[in-house]
């Protein structure tokens, strides 16, 4: 087998130059199913929050269906994001300390257990049920958090340099299918229950519009997320540790050569003497909190953190509050005109259509083009078009709310999603897995991803309050007056423009080996 640079470790060269083969696709599916589950679990909650409001917070004398109080709504949608942020930092650090593979199994078990447990949330009072739900969703988020740095790092370290971007992006693209699948599960569940338990709309009979059996709907939807993750556990455990971790961090050349020899089905020399020389090389010893790290990678870490932070403010506020935007333009009928189950169906239908038409295609456009036009160009272009479409929606906002222009509004809204996914939503995940040294790769990816989740929390909590009407009489129950949806969208447009500027801090790793991209000195003549 042709092995390029003689100064580089043969095992790493073999991986860099390997032709695309079955093990690459196996790795994409194994890592991708984790991401499929992550997206399913994080976004399925937005399908059932209206139902939870009807089930647990409808008062007999009210003229409209119950909604979750502001603090409860923010906690139910946001607590998993808080858990994810903590998990990204903790498991990212642990992945560099213990190895990618060991930690990878832990995150999966945590996700499966908490996914099932959140569907079994019990309590004798509404507060009891919501507290249990929030508790399990925090730990579910904690497990999901670990999946971000580990999936990206494992895929980047397994991939060849020619198509590495596409492989990491393909893992992330499974998120699109997760969002789509959550919508489909909700559609099937709601349709089944609506057929089995006929009930009048809220206007016709408030008391009977929410059948007691509909309490099972949200539980089934939330618990279903554990299935794909559980199915891939065995394969996750069979994956060998990545050669870059084994050779460069654990310093076990023999094991790395054996593992990758099996995977690539070639004979690889173990080169223990080179590993010893590398470990004696002072330039590869600096830690995360050293001046050397700041000098070499400080600006890069700022770039990956700031762009992910800014992107997620816009992305999560859009995604978690899709249903509010759709209701505002009349794509989802007014709540009193539906019964509880029909409302779940209508929300799921809207989310599934957006996922099918813009979210999923956007991800796969990135997969197709990332190794051709590069990460930098896709990220810059994505932020630019997100800014343009956000302003195009926001400035003539009243125009879009009129009956005749609703389809136009949905198209514009879909295009902002398309360019988020064929843009920064995918590239912010790919780049941190490529530009940092092996011994800090998982940690730095975790820090970047946690900055993103901090943005998601700002988006999720902030948008809830900001998007409320300026007129205190028109706000949702319990909320103070906000700046209105129009002004909120203008703010999001400005945030996207700022993301475009921060993109200039991020280097382009296209076509480079991981060691070149992270400026790691991997030569035998240090």
Automatic annotation (TrEMBL):
Alphabetic keyword roster: Membrane, Phosphate transport, Symport, Transmembrane, Transmembrane helix, Transport
Topology relative to the membrane: Multi-pass membrane protein
Transmembrane segments: 22-48, 68-91, 103-122, 166-193, 216-235, 352-370, 376-395, 407-426, 446-467
Major subcellular location class: membrane
Catalytic activity as recorded in UniProt: phosphate(in) + H(+)(in) = phosphate(out) + H(+)(out)
Pfam entry (one): Sugar_tr
InterPro entries: MFS_dom, MFS_sugar_transport-like, MFS_trans_sf, Phos_permease
Domain Major facilitator superfamily (MFS) profile intervals: 27-511
Subcellular compartments: Membrane
Keyword Glycoprotein among UniProt keywords: no
UniProt keyword Zinc present: no
Domain of life from the UniProt record: Eukaryota
NCBIfam families: 2A0109 (TIGR00887)
Family the UniProt entry places it in: Belongs to the major facilitator superfamily. Phosphate:H(+) symporter (TC 2.A.1.9) family.
Name of the protein this chain belongs to: Probable inorganic phosphate transporter 1-3
